[in-house]
Design brief:
By secondary structure, the protein is of the alpha/beta class. The protein contains eleven helices and twelve strands.
Length: 296
């Protein structure tokens, strides 16, 4: 028998199952001790979710807010936007689609030597970057929109945060300065940044540096489990989601995820894609394989 340190629930093994006991009453059970602990964590989550006012807004409405805020960045109405929340549910896709809808082109689609007007392109940066690497990215894209997708390292380094403060400032001229040694033929020590920045992060909003938050338009896409299912349902019915696969197969996959969401190791679009593929490639015996893939 073990005790959950957060809730005083006791986890016991009974008849081939694990049960969570609180004040002598069984409040949750599972055949897996690991997933029972996850279920207990989810039982605690509503209190934390209630404290998050963003969750009170319907998730699809918040995605609409996201499109509008990113459009403002694309049209030079604001310098930056910070997008936070659960991964794997369309943040990056929505940001890119909004920038394209605003008339911007992905810099990777621009032909070498082609001349482009200021603020008509965007560049996506993924993964780790050093402060000096950030300085270079901002300089090379000083007249464009820079999308930092899952580049949480920039939030953890004081020098990187200070560079971003300059890029996102509200002054008429946003000057970015690098005071350490740089070879003269490599990068300038100072330049004006006239572009925009969009951050996409799976980190909670309150973990983002306050100085960056106050300089940016922020949208929190944190979701409850039900909101994740709701969001997946909307995306599932779009033409771009797994075209060629019968809609009934997608609906079967989402139904199975919904029925077993409390024990799933992940609930995201990746989950829906995986289960839909299993449904499409198997006939009457697809559910066991799909359920194993969902919870194992």
């Amino acid at each position: 028998m073990t005790t959950n340190t957060h809730t005083n629930m006791q986890i016991e093994s009974r008849g081939g199952k694990y049960v969570a006991v609180l004040n002598g009453k069984v409040v949750a059970e599972s055949t897996s001790k690991y997933y029972l602990k996850q279920k207990i964590a989810r039982m605690e989550a509503p209190q934390a979710e209630e404290e998050n006012s963003a969750i009170k807004f319907p998730i699809n409405q918040r995605f609409n807010f996201l499109e509008r805020l990113v459009t403002m960045v694309g049209k030079n109405k604001t310098a930056s936007a910070i997008v936070t929340g659960d991964g794997g549910l369309g943040k990056s896709h929505t940001v890119i689609a909004a920038l394209k809808a605003a008339g911007l082109r992905d810099i990777s689609d621009v032909e070498p030597g082609e001349t482009v007007a200021p603020r008509t392109t965007f560049r996506v940066i993924k993964g780790y970057t050093t402060p000096k690497g950030l300085f270079r990215v901002l300089f090379e894209n000083r007249n464009s929109i820079v999308v930092f997708d899952d580049c949480d390292s920039v939030f953890k380094d004081e020098d990187a945060v200070n560079l971003l403060k300059g890029a996102l400032d509200t002054y008429d001229k946003r000057l970015i300065t690098w005071n350490t040694s740089i070879r003269e033929d490599e990068l300038p020590r100072m330049f004006e940044f006239t572009g925009g920045v969009v951050f996409i992060s799976n980190r909670p909003t309150n973990k983002i540096d306050q100085a960056l938050r106050t300089r940016s338009m922020c949208i929190d896409l944190s979701m409850t489990l039900d909101q994740k299912i709701e969001r997946m349902s909307v995306i599932m019915n779009t033409e771009s989601f797994m075209p060629g696969v019968p809609s009934s197969y997608k609906a079967d996959a989402l139904h199975l995820i919904k029925e077993n969401a409390s024990e799933a190791r992940e609930v995201s679009l990746r989950t829906l894609i995986t289960i839909t593929k299993i449904r499409a490639e198997n006939d009457s015996d697809w559910k066991d394989l799909a359920l194993y893939s969902l919870v194992a």
